[in-house]
């Protein structure tokens, strides 16, 4: 599918810069360039060569097996790069600079001064200022520098080849020095420009979007629109989620939007859709030819080659999905020539159940899709694009662009469900940016999950997995994957299913989201707003790393116990206090089972969760299975993800989110050096980790931690998440290699 990929062409702003990080007008750049700020193509290619060379050992197995890149790349590298390749194992990095150590005399030295390496020791806080004198030196590049022999530092020997004392010098810092970091996919650098959109107000009039304000109130469910703090008549809490509206403080919930009469439904689609309406959607013209049938539950009965729509416009070709609301069909749209734009005469049509309840719900979905379309007619913000809507035999039909399978289905059909880091970053960027766009429009998605994230381009490379690995797969996965590890060529995604999405000023049902992706404020009945989407995205991102659901739970108590375990901390007592207060004063519209499944498990005095559950005699009644799921199958998030990363990088990677990045890295590094000294090189070879790769994962986990903040008013917003340090970092892995290989 042709998609516009927006790539910020301005210099990257630093994570600690505030709104200025939103880039200016973005250019459309062809998707075959790894993001390299504003450097031209040839340099891009050279840089990529260098990066591949430098990381050769890191990826040697995978790249050799699947892509045969190393030999090919090195054969045409410039001489100094080949030399670098030969000696890449001798890279050492210190806080300020890194230099390549050579075992033969050299006249030049490659300085690698990664902006990420400059993170100071306070970098647990992403807003901390950097130790960096030059505000402009964050471009990623290698630059050959003459060696500056300042006082050499003697380091412990660091490789078997370098048994003797090794000198590491501190080269003089060059102004405007260009630095190198590992590459990112273009999708990881998609820019976002706020203050741009217009949104409908409560009377459906389009008003210009006001500047984002932090003076937003956290919505409560039901008829109460007070903030959590407001419930207690204390100072109003500022919810950091942004939205385009100034919410009238302490007002009762605005009346629900009147649902449009059916006759005006078509008008609701807006002017941008009119061009699609040349074939008027009157059903009568085609109904005689159609076999279109509806069952007793109001569901369309799927039959291949069914024809429906005005003039027999749509031919049913496949059933893409079936949900509560209806069926989603892959159809040929006869409005277009058969080979229109490489098969873009195919569309997805969501045929809503012919039941009043679902028809009404579809109208809400329609209003959301309409707002999205009006503000992003090109679909640059990764949201499902509505092409048309019509009513057919009492079924509302939503015609949208057709995308590939969902991330969930892709994972199920993959021998290794985990995604490469570069793809996780690209997907994260798209999701967060898309949600930032939605939140700016006042829309909360409420049901973000892998099933609702579709892949645009399903093409991939497939590597054969070792027999032993294949045998360890479940029968279902073995059959679905055919024993192969699939890596997408391009991890572009789209968010779908706006059936549960709402405008922030509308009625909030007490329970939203699919259980595994449900934020704590929903479970605790505190009321919810924009931050719930951030929690859901965080759950999705972890799922991409570990290859399975982070919260494989079905009930509240275990869910809460697991949340505490994963965050490594109990729920903050102030939010539990609010939960009790809300319940006591019957504020808001709580889940019906709140008392019996949530509140009763908290101790009123200590405001702590009583888990494992005990009976009156003090005996543990929590089942062994449940204990195992909470205590053994998961762990504090940094530890849990580190365990998974060991599969790729060896035993030494051990991320501790309580340590500053530099300190964490030096502990890991000294462990690796020690291992190399004690053991043979083969033992050390299991550690395929360098500092930049470590930093990539460290900052990823840091972002997750902020997204998993229990208190929704303190949880990172989508806008702030886009400015997080992690999005300045790259990684060289199979995902980058595949992308590069296929885009060339
Ligand atoms: N535009 C599309 N292109 C390709 N597949 C799609 C598209 N839209 C939906 N699907 C498929 O149909 C499935 C159901 O779509 P959707 O989630 O919108 O329906 P739903 O009735 O709201 O489902 P649920 O009840 O699960 O929320 C999706 O998971 C996806 O696999």
From TrEMBL:
InterPro entries: CLK_kinases, Kinase-like_dom_sf, Prot_kinase_dom, Protein_kinase_ATP_BS, Ser/Thr_kinase_AS. It comes from Saccharomyces uvarum (Yeast). Residues 314-727 form the Protein kinase domain. Residues 1-27, 105-132, 246-295 are annotated as: Disordered. The keyword Kinase applies. Gene3D superfamilies: Phosphorylase Kinase, domain 1, Transferase(Phosphotransferase) domain 1. SUPFAM superfamilies: Protein kinase-like (PK-like) (SSF56112). ATP binds at residue 350. This is Protein kinase domain-containing protein. It holds the Pfam family Pkinase. The keyword Transferase applies. It comes from the Eukaryota.
């Amino acid at each position: 599918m042709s998609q516009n990929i927006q790539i910020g062409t301005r210099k990257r702003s630093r994570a600690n810069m505030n709104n200025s990080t939103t880039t200016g007008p973005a250019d459309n750049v062809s998707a075959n360039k790894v993001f390299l700020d504003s450097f031209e193509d040839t340099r891009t290619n050279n840089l990529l060569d260098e990066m591949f060379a430098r990381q050769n050992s890191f990826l040697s197995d995978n790249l050799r097996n699947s892509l045969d890149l190393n030999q090919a790349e090195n054969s045409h590298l410039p001489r100094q790069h080949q030399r670098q390749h030969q000696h890449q194992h001798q890279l050492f990095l210190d806080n300020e600079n890194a230099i390549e150590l050579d075992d033969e005399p050299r006249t030049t030295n490659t300085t690698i001064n990664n902006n990420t390496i400059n993170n100071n020791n306070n970098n647990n806080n992403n807003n901390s200022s950097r130790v960096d004198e030059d505000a402009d030196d964050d471009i990623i590049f290698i630059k050959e520098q003459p060696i500056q022999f300042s006082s050499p530092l003697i380091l412990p020997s660091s490789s078997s080849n370098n048994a003797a004392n090794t000198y590491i010098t501190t080269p003089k810092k060059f102004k405007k020095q260009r630095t190198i970091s590992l590459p990112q996919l273009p999708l990881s650098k998609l820019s976002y420009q706020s203050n741009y959109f217009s949104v409908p107000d409560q009377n459906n009039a389009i008003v210009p979007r006001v500047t984002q304000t932090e003076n937003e109130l956290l919505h409560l469910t039901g008829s109460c629109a007070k903030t959590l703090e407001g419930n207690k008549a204390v100072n109003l809490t500022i919810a950091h989620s942004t939205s385009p509206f100034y919410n009238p403080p302490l007002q009762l919930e605005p009346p629900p939007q009147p649902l449009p009469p059916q006759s005006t439904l078509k008008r609701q689609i807006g002017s941008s859709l009119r061009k699609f309406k040349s074939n008027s959607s009157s059903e009568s013209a085609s109904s005689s030819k159609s076999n279109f049938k509806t069952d007793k539950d109001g569901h369309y009965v799927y039959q291949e080659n069914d024809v429906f729509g005005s003039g027999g416009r749509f031919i049913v070709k496949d059933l893409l999905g079936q949900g509560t609301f209806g069926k989603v069909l892959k159809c040929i749209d006869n409005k277009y020539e058969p080979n229109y734009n490489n098969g873009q005469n195919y569309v997805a049509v969501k045929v809503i159940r012919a039941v009043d309840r679902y028809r009404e719900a579809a109208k809400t979905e329609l209003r959301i899709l309409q707002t999205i379309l009006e503000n992003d007619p090109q679909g640059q913000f990764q949201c499902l694009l509505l092409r048309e809507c019509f009513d057919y035999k009492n079924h509302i039909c939503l015609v949208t662009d057709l995308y590939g399978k969902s991330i969930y289905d892709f994972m199920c059909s993959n021998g290794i469900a985990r995604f490469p880091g570069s793809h996780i970053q690209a997907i994260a960027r798209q999701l967060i940016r898309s949600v930032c766009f939605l939140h700016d429009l006042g829309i909360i998605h409420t049901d973000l999950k892998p099933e609702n994230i579709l892949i645009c381009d399903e093409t991939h490379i497939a590597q054969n997995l070792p027999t032993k690995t294949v045998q360890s797969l479940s029968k279902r996965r073995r059959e679905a994957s055919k024993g192969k590890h699939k890596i997408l060529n391009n991890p572009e995604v789209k968010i779908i299913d706006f059936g549960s999405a709402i405008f922030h000023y509308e009625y909030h049902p007490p329970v939203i989201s699919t259980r595994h992706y449900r934020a704590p404020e929903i479970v605790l009945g505190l009321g919810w707003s924009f931050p719930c989407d951030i929690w859901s995205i965080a759950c999705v991102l972890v799922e991409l790393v570990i290859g399975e659901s982070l919260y494989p739970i079905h009930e509240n108590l275990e869910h809460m116990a697991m949340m505490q375990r994963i965050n490594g901390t109990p729920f903050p007592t102030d939010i539990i206090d609010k939960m009790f207060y809300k319940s006591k004063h019957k504020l808001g519209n709580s889940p019906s089972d709140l008392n019996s499944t949530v509140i009763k498990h908290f101790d009123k005095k200590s405001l702590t969760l009583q888990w494992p559950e005990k009976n009156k005699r003090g005996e543990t009644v929590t089942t062994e299975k449940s204990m195992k799921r909470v205590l053994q199958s998961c762990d504090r998030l940094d530890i849990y993800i580190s365990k998974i990363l060991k599969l790729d990088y060896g035993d030494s990677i051990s991320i501790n989110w309580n340590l500053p990045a530099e300190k964490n890295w030096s502990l890991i590094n000294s462990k690796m050096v020690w291992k190399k000294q004690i053991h043979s090189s083969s033992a050390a070879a299991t550690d395929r980790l360098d500092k930049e790769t470590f930093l990539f994962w460290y900052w990823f986990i840091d972002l997750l931690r902020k997204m998993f903040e229990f208190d929704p008013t303190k949880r990172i917003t989508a806008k702030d998440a886009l400015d997080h340090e992690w999005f300045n970092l790259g990684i060289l892995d199979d995902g980058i290699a595949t992308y590069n290989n296929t885009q060339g």
